[in-house]
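Re: the 143-residue chain
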Amino acid sequence: MSYNLVFWAGGDDLDPDNVYARMYDEHVSGIDAVDRDRVLRAFADLPGWTWDGQFLRPPGTNPEGTPAYDVSIGEQLIEFIGYRFQGEHSNEIIDAIRHSATDSATRRSANDSPEPRRERSENAVVITAPNHHGRTDLEGHLV
């Protein structure tokens, strides 16, 4: 099972589904640029986590290299694809990114639900919908 976490800042008046899909193909007006150095500092501040330039791994990673998060840092978004993760690990990432970015950070995940659902959690707004690749990545929700 994999789970996508996608963060961006700004664009609060824009439709999140539209923004998420567009950011892979174009610059979206109203969305802030990602400060890569700030993101990397957030990774360094995660106690016991390791970053190899592509994968972010929590303490206690097994010999197979999981749990792990494949990270893509784009111009306007940061995407984490989690493999064999635990909810507490994703929550640590959410907290680190939220603390490193503006308060308008948005978390987005993809699943097989045909209509987007918005839920409020302690950490962020969770939006679940099919991802831009047309595949489903989410089999459950983090609480």
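Strands lie at 2-8, 50-51, 55-57, 68-73, 78-83, 106-110, 117-120, 125-129.
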